[in-house]
Write a structure and sequence with these properties.
Length: about 325
């Protein structure tokens, strides 16, 4: 497992003086993001002294979690969830850090987590920060300076930022085919994949490196909008569905015509295994007008697969062009 996230200490500063409801909501949001990280088998780290994080008024995070007489308290369930979540998180090795201070948000902040993320990104391994999302805390990509060296760091508080971070990793780390496959469940978590689909990354007309950016962009569009477009429009005019889907995906996206669907070689060429069944992938995203396709299908929710509520997009194959 590769560590892609780190917890931030600075965002807790002043938490003890924050409205209790706003603080509880922020902790809930952080825990929900940690749940997503865990569900997707992504790894997160923290500094060994994270429990000593200062919340203001002389209160440390450890006191809130474990001391009965602490003036700042969360409700029991929230305390238990936070304690369990932090206990599961690994500690990062800070032996290579020359300093723990980072300049961002208009000032110099003591924050080992952000300093470590900066060091990782400087070494071309992208790590994003998971801050406590209180007011004034950074959200999205922003410049961070450590030791006089500026670096753009991602602060992730929402799902779209989470997805954008992993999609950016593919480019920033110059992901090869194997790395693209390993990052896909995090970059495009709403998509499913047919058996052996990744072998097709070498089957485009152009080299993989030439199509990688288009793959990220259009798989992202399918992930973010594909199922909802089908769910809303599949019972209506097929031309409207094709038009809306193309707009949302970002390039021409269409179903095959009836003549192609009646052709046995065409059907065989588009047939792949998914969940132990043969399925035919007629719909396709056109990376270029005449070459390079992402073939997919839509399955609505059913009694066997009620979730996600809008159904699911399954990517079947990558190819220059099917028969």
């Amino acid at each position: 497992m590769t560590t892609r996230f780190v917890l931030d200490e600075w965002s807790w500063a002043g938490a003890a003086e924050t409205d209790s409801e706003a603080l509880s909501n922020a902790v809930h949001q952080l825990l929900e993001r940690l749940d997503v990280v865990r569900e997707r088998n992504e790894d997160v780290a923290r500094h060994q002294d994270y429990y000593e994080t200062d919340l203001g008024d002389g209160v440390q995070l450890y006191s809130v979690l474990f001391e009965r007489n602490c003036p700042l308290k969360f409700d029991h369930d929230l305390t238990e969830r936070l304690s369990l979540a932090l206990d599961r998180i690994i500690e990062f090795d800070d032996s290579g850090l020359s300093e723990y201070d980072a300049r961002f948000c208009g000032g110099m902040q003591f924050t080992p987590g952000v300093a470590w993320a900066h060091a990782c990104c400087s070494a071309l391994h992208q790590v994003a920060v998971l801050p406590l999302p209180l007011g004034g805390v950074p959200s999205g990509k922003m410049p961070v300076v450590v030791g006089g060296m500026p670096k753009e760091i991602a602060f992730v508080t929402e799902e779209l930022q989470h997805l954008d971070f992993f999609r950016s990793v593919i480019d920033l780390e110059n992901a090869n085919e194997a790395m693209f496959e390993s990052l896909a469940p995090s970059a495009f978590p709403a998509l499913e994949w047919a058996d052996n689909v990744w072998r097709g990354l070498g089957d485009f007309d152009r080299p993989y490196n030439a199509v990688r950016g288009e793959l990220v962009r259009y798989l992202g569009g399918l992930n973010d909008h594909g199922a909802s477009c089908f769910h809303k429009l599949r019972a209506g005019d097929p031309r409207q569905l094709q038009s809306v889907l193309s707009t949302q995906v970002g390039t021409a996206t269409s179903d095959e015509n009836g003549q192609t669907k009646k052709n046995p070689p065409s059907r065989r060429d588009r047939t792949r295994r998914h969940r132990k069944e043969n399925k035919v992938f007629w719909w396709h995203v056109k990376l270029q007008p005449h070459i390079d396709r992402i073939y997919f299908l839509y399955e609505p929710p059913s009694a066997d697969w009620p979730l996600p509520e809008h159904g699911r997009i399954i990517v079947g194959l990558f190819k220059d062009h099917c028969v």
